[in-house]
Amino acid sequence: MSLLKPFSKTPEINGANILLVENEEQFQQCLAETIVLQNMNVNVNVRLARSLPLPMENEKSRPRIDLVVFIINLTSEASFKSAETSLKYLDPGYFLGKVCFVVTKARSAVPPERLIAVRKLAASLHCPLLYAEDQTTEGVTTTAHRLLAILRVTAGLIPMATSLYLSTLTCYTLPSDTDQLNFD
Amino acid sequence: MNSDGVQQDNVQPSDTQEPVLPSGSVPLYIGCSEAAQAELMNQCEDQFAQLELLQNKIVLEEPDSNENPEEQSINRLAAVAAELKMWQSIQPELLSTNSEVLLAIGTEELHKMNSQLELVLSCSEARRERLTESLKKEQAWLEEKKDVFRAATEQVVKQRLENERLSEHGVLQDTKKKILRLRDYQEKLAETLSDILEEHFPLPTNETNVNKKKKNIPLELNENLLSLHDILELLMNKILESPHDPYVPVDETFWPPYTEMLLRYGIALRHPEDCFKIRLENFF
Amino acid sequence: MLSMDDSTKFILKRLIRRIPLQMLQKTLSKWTYLREDLDSLDFKQSKYIFTECLLSLFEEKGTTVKRITELEMIYVIENPNQGMWHGFQLSDAEEDAPTVDLIQFKEQFKAHLIELNSHVSIKIKKHTDEAIWIRIAWGSNFTNPNHLKPTYAVHHLQTPYVFVNGLSLKHKPLLFQALVLATRYGSMKDAHLSGRKLTAIRDLLMRQYQQMFPTKHPRPLQEKNPVPTNPKIEKEQAVNTENRMQVACEAFGDGKLPELQKAVYQLETKFRDDSNKTLKSREEPFRGVVEFSSTNLLESLRHAVSSGIAATPVSALLPAITQKRRNRFIITDK
After folding, report:
1. Is the ipTM of this complex over 0.85?
2. How do strand C328-332 and strand C286-293 relate by DSSP bridges?
3. What's the CATH number of domain C210-226+234-332, 1.10.150.80, 3.10.20.720, 2.40.50.100, 3.40.50.980?
4. What is the reported pTM?
5. Nearest residue on chain B to A9, judged by CA atoms?
6. Chains B and A touch (3+ CB pairs under 8 A)
7. Residue C136, Ramachandran bin (φ over 0: left; ψ between -120 and 50: alpha; else beta)
8. Tell me, what's the pLDDT at B64?
9. Which CATH number is associated with domain A15-183?
C-alpha cells in the first residue's frame, strides 16, 4: 500500500499543488481548467485522479501535494464509495487540514442518507465540506476560488496561518439537527 | 506518530512561507538596490537550507500509518496543542534587517490593503444604499400598517357598541319591560272586569226575589251560591290548568240564570255528552 | 363530374397533417403529379388554410387514392426515421438470386402477393440509393385496403436484407412469402435488429459505417484525437483513461455509431440456488430481461465505458450489438 504523504517532498518555491480526486472525471476537468485560469501570483499545478492510490510510476514526477480534494457526486453511490475507499491511501498527516470534500449535485433529488453519510465522513475526519454548483460557470469559478483560498494556506503561502489552524476553524461539525434526525 | 514528529509537521509549514513570500512579490523588489536584492536572496537561501534540513528530518521519522479514527482525533489534539505551544513560544522577528526591503514589503502590503479596503468600501456603500432603500420601503410599509391599525381600532370600537346593544342582557331587559307592561295591562283588565261584574251581576238575594216574584213561588236560595265573578274564575282556571279537560261540573252553587247567560252569549259551552258540565269558550 | 370521396379526403388530410409545414413545399415539388399547379399554391398561408386550398385543388383534379399514396411514399422515403423499423435477413439463395433485377422483382412480388391476398394495394418505387421501397395497404374480403396503416418494406437488390415498418403479425407470413419468392431466396428470418432510424438499422446490418475491428495491438490514441491540455494540469491515471478509451474503441469502434434506441437481453436459465427447492425443481426456465435504452444507445455505452462509469473489461454482450448486428439477444444455458 503506497500512502500519499504530505511532507515526503520538499515544497516548490512559490508554488502550490492541488489534487482533485473524482470517480467520474466530469467536474474535475472543468474545475481544474478554472483553477489554472485564475490569476494568482503563485504557480498552481493541478493533478487529477479518479481514485487513490496514485500510480507508482508517477511517484518521481509528482510534486508535493498541498491539498487533496475529494469530489463527491451526490447522485451516485459509486462516487461516494470510491471516495471512501480512496481515503485509506492517504497519510494521516493529511487530515491535519490538507483534505477537503466538495459535494456536487446537492440540488437534485438525492437520498438524504447519502448526504448525511458525507457530512458524517467530513465531520469525523475534521475536514471542510463545500457544496459546489457544477452546472454554471459562476458556480465552478466560485468553487475554484474557495479551493484556492484553502490551498494558499495549506501550501504555507499565507504568513502566520497554518493548515491545521485553518482547519480547526473550517472543519465540518455535524449540526445538531442531523443528530436529531439520526435519533429519530 | 510521536509528538516530536507532530511538532516538526507544524513548524515546517510556517517555515515554508518565508522563502516563498519575497518571490511572491517580485515586481516591487525590482526597485530595490542590488545589494538589498542580494541580501534577500541570501536570506532566502538560508531559509531554504533550513527547510531542507527539516524536510530530511521528517522523512527519517517513520510514523505508524495504521491508525483508527479515535487515534486520529488524539493525534489531532496533540498536533493542535503542539502548534499552540509553538505559537506561544515563538518570538516575533523581523523579516529582514534591511530597511530598503522592509520599506518595499510595507509599501506592497499597504497597497494590497488599500485595494482590499477600497473593495470593502464600495461593497459596503452598495450595501448601505440597498439598506437605505429597503428602510424607505419598510417605513412606507409601516405607515400603511399604522393606517390600517387605526381603521381597525375604530371599527372594533364601533362593533363593540353595536354588540352591547344587541347583547343578551339588552334583549332580556326589553323582554322584562314588555312582561311588566303586559302584567299591568292584565291587572287593569281584571280589575275592570271585577268592577263590572260586581256592579252589574250581584248575587241574587231574597229581597229582590220577593220584589220580582210572587210569594207563592217556593224559593230555596242556596246560601252557597257563587258569584259570576267566581264562576268565571273557576272556568278560566280550569281551562288554563288542565287544557285537556277544561270542563267544570255544574252543581247547585251555580245560579242557573248566570249559567244560562254564559251559554247564551257564547262565553261558555256545554259538554256535548254531559249536560252538567261546561267549559269556557276558546278565546285564544 | 370529378370528385373525391370522403375517405380519400380523410387520407389526404391525415397525410398533410403528418408533414411539417416547412417540409411541405419540398415534398410537394417532388411530386410530378402536381408540377403544373405548384405555382398556384401559396406556401406562406397557415397550414389549415393551405390544406383547404390543396383539398379544393385535388377535388378539381379528381385526385385518386393511388395518387395520394404516391405523395405519401415521397414523404416517407425522404423521412424514413419514423416508426419502428425491423431488420430481416433472407437466406438460402437460389442460383439465379443475384440476377434478379428491378422489373423482374416488381412483377414477381406483385404477382405473388396478390395471389396470396387479392385485396391489397401495392406500390413499388426505386429510390436513388438502389433501395426498392414497397408500400402495401392491406385489405380483406370484407374491407378495402387500409391506406391509413400501410406497411413499408425496403429491400436493396442483391443483398439479403429487408427492412420493414408497420407490419402486423397477421400479414407477416404473406409478405415474407412474396419477398422470398420474388428475391429467389429460400427463407427469411428476423435479424433481431430494430430501431426508429432506418438509416441506422441499414448501416448496421449492411455494415455501412466506419468500423474498427478488435485488435490486440493498441494504437496510440493521442495521434488520432490530440486533446489540448494545460501543462499545469496533469492526469495521474492518464494511462488508465487511455486504456479505457482503447477498450471502448475496441468494443464499439471509434467513428460515428449508428443510432439505436435500445438493446434487450433476455436471460433464460435454470434457477441455481440450492436453498430454494421450489424454484430449482421448476421445469420452466427462469427468465430475466435487461433492457438498455437511450436516444443513441451505442454512443451512450461507449461513453459509459470510456468515462469509467461502466466497469472494464466490457462484457462481450455489449459489443455483440455491433459485432452480431442485432439488438435483441436471448441468452440460454448451454
Report:
1. no
2. unpaired
3. 3.10.20.720
4. 0.57
5. B55
6. yes
7. beta
8. 59
9. 3.40.50.300
